[in-house]
Amino acid sequence: MPQIIFVQPDGQRLCVEAKSGITAMEAARANGVAGIDADCSGACACATCHVHVAEEWSRAVGGPNDEEREILEFADAIGATSRLSCQIVLDDAMDGLILAVPGLS
Ligand code: FES
User: Fold this and answer.
1) Contact residues of ligand 1, CB 6 A cut-off
2) Which of 56, 78, 88, 93 has the CB geometry, 3.0–4.6 Å to 24, for a possible disulfide?
3) Long-range contacts of range 68-72, CB-CB < 8 Å, 24 or more positions apart?
4) How far apart are CA 94 and CA 34, in angstroms?
């Protein structure tokens, strides 16, 4: 059961326990993480679940596929490690994963 750390724009950290096999977005929503609205409920269609993967985790998490990359273009504050959290499926190897919630622009 990996623990995922969500970092708010003000630096506040929220550590949540998540079951392997669910997405980072589902873990965020289940634990009331602010800034992960997930308006499309994980259909890769809204970009309101955008996160920045911590640099040290970017290789393990991997990059977006073409469909996800297209939707990310609608998100604010895109960075080199941007992902849609609904497309990050968690597993035990992701214990300690750090995901930053972008600030509002
Ligand atoms: Fe809509 Fe992730 S919840 S793109």
Assistant:
1) 25, 38-40, 42-49, 71, 84, 86
2) 88
3) 68/44, 71/44, 71/45, 71/46, 71/47, 72/47
4) 21
The number of the ligand 1 atom at minimal distance from the alpha carbon of 48 is 1
**Residue given tokens 């920045």 in the structure block:** 52
pTM passes above 0.85? yes
Q: Which atom of ligand 1 is nearest to the CA of 86?
A: 2
Taking a C-beta distance cutoff of 8 angstroms, is the pair 62, 88 a contact? no
Bridge-based pairing state of the strands 50-53 and 82-84: antiparallel
Tens of pLDDT, residue by residue over 55-71, are 999 999 999 999 999 99
